[in-house]
Write a structure and sequence with these properties.
There is one protein chain. The chain has two domains: 194 residues, Beta-Lactamase; 190 residues, Hypothetical protein af1432. It has 14 helices and eight strands. The strands form two sheets. The protein has a six-stranded antiparallel sheet, sandwiched between helices. The chain has a two-stranded antiparallel ribbon with strand order 1-2. Strand 3 and strand 4 form a beta hairpin. The structure holds fe (ii) ion (2 copies). One fe (ii) ion binds next to loops.
């Protein structure tokens, strides 16, 4: 796919400022043929296409999609035959091929060991600079010949912490990279690097948020000793049920991929208000008196109001907003006989109707100090019997269709 050692150069950031001067620092060693053709008349159009791509890259939330978009631009806008993205794998001390165009599938899994190999990609990465070889076959250091590859440009992909990989542009023409195209390639790779860095920061932030939210939920849950897998199971059940609703097109107005991901996390917050219930009620081993039960019921409002306040103070991001809905309404009933607000039917948020089924199934099939667990089949029948009274009939029907999946989660995530 590559590799040799031809150029000396300045960092990509220097040559990506798109000044109308020769590309300083990216000097082919084997520069003996004619100068590359100028593509000045195309430059404005290419630049416009690059700017449009950059605008799209900002919103991409998936690494592979970013690679594919950038490679598409490299081929369709810049006209290069071959592209490859290598990312550094520190554990393997290698550059691993993550995406490619212009090679067949046999390159899958290819990697360049940083310790053993010389070559263009290794050089660009270890010296953190672009490397350009206008005639790879004339270069004595070219070590992995692709018979069709004639010229190659390799640009480091940089994060704030240094290079994280390289982008390899290849052409079946000699001297295929004009100075201005090298600038565009550098700009393209720099923007890809920014998008990857944003993606990493976004993922880190999302993981931190999830950890804090799940930690809060676990703290609340730990008070009544119902530790074990309860929260993990509720989240897993919620995913199963919501994905099934989504597949069936039921409640399609609400349920999309983001909804599924959000409820899988937010469901853990359903009983967070238990943190506000006194020990003598929460930890009472026997049945509650009517007065104690009234106190216990306040956990829905305590949790809902707390999460709602967080939404009001810190902005309404979907996960917290759904968490508030679930905490408030997971004990509401379809026929309006639930608490704390006596909401009925579709006035109950869908997320809470879903979690209600999951929570009851888990409570029925779990052992408590004051009760034994009941078998899966019996729990399934009880939920079906509650359809249209306790539970949203559609959610209850989909639950019965997915009951086998629930049972598998139940046995996988034991207390
Ligand atoms: Fe609850
Ligand atoms: Fe619960």
């Amino acid at each position: 796919m590559q590799d040799n050692d031809t150029a000396q150069g300045a960092p990509c950031a220097v040559i990506s400022e798109l000044e109308p001067v020769p590309v300083a620092g990216v000097v082919p060693v084997a520069q003996t043929a004619a100068a590359p053709p100028a593509h000045g008349e195309d430059f404005t159009a290419k630049l416009a296409a690059m700017q449009q791509l950059n605008a799209r890259l900002i919103f991409m939330r998936d690494e592979q999609t970013i690679f594919e978009e950038v490679m598409t631009a490299a081929q369709s806008v810049l006209g290069y035959d071959i592209c490859a993205v290598f990312l550094h794998d520190p554990a393997a001390r290698a550059l691993r091929l993550r995406a490619w165009r212009g090679y067949d599938d046999r390159v899958r899994g290819f990697s360049i060991p940083l310790e053993r190999e010389i070559g263009l990609c290794r050089l660009a990465f270890t010296e953190d600079r672009p490397v350009y070889s206008p005639d790879v076959m004339a270069d004595p250091n070219y070590c992995m010949a692709d018979p069709e590859l004639c010229s190659e440009l390799i640009i480091p992909i940089r994060s704030r912490r240094g290079p994280i990989g390289v982008f390899d542009f290849g052409s079946r023409a000699l001297y295929a990279f004009a100075d201005e195209d090298i600038r565009l390639c550098c700009t393209l790779v720099d923007h890809m690097a920014i998008s990857l860095e944003n993606l990493r920061l976004f993922d880190e932030l999302a993981s931190t948020r999830d950890a804090i939210i799940l930690g809060m939920a676990r703290l609340a849950e730990s008070r009544d000793g119902a530790m074990g897998g309860h929260l993990d199971r509720i989240c897993a059940y919620s995913r199963i049920l919501t994905e099934a609703l989504s597949r069936q097109g039921t409640h399609a107005r609400f349920v999309d991929e983001e909804y599924v991901e959000t409820i899988t996390r937010s469901a853990a917050l359903h009983d967070i208000g238990k943190v506000g219930i006194p020990d003598e009620v929460l930890l009472k081993p026997g049945h509650l008196t009517p007065g104690e039960y009234e106190i216990m019921k306040t956990h829905a409002g305590i949790g809902g109001a707390t999460l709602e306040e967080m939404v009001n103070r810190h902005g309404s991001f979907f996960m917290l907003k759904m968490g508030a809905d679930i905490a408030w309404a997971h004990h509401e009933r379809w026929d309006g006989s639930g608490y704390p607000r006596g909401l009925a039917a579709e006035a109950i948020p869908l997320s809470a109707r879903i979690v209600a089924v999951c929570d009851v199934y888990d409570a029925l099939t779990s052992q408590r100090i004051y009760k034994a667990a009941i078998p899966h089949d019996r729990a399934r029948d009880l939920i079906l019997a509650g359809a249209g009274q306790h539970f949203d009939p559609t959610v209850a029907r989909v639950f019965t269709e997915q009951a086998g999946e629930f049972q598998r989660v139940r046995s996988r995530l034991r207390d």
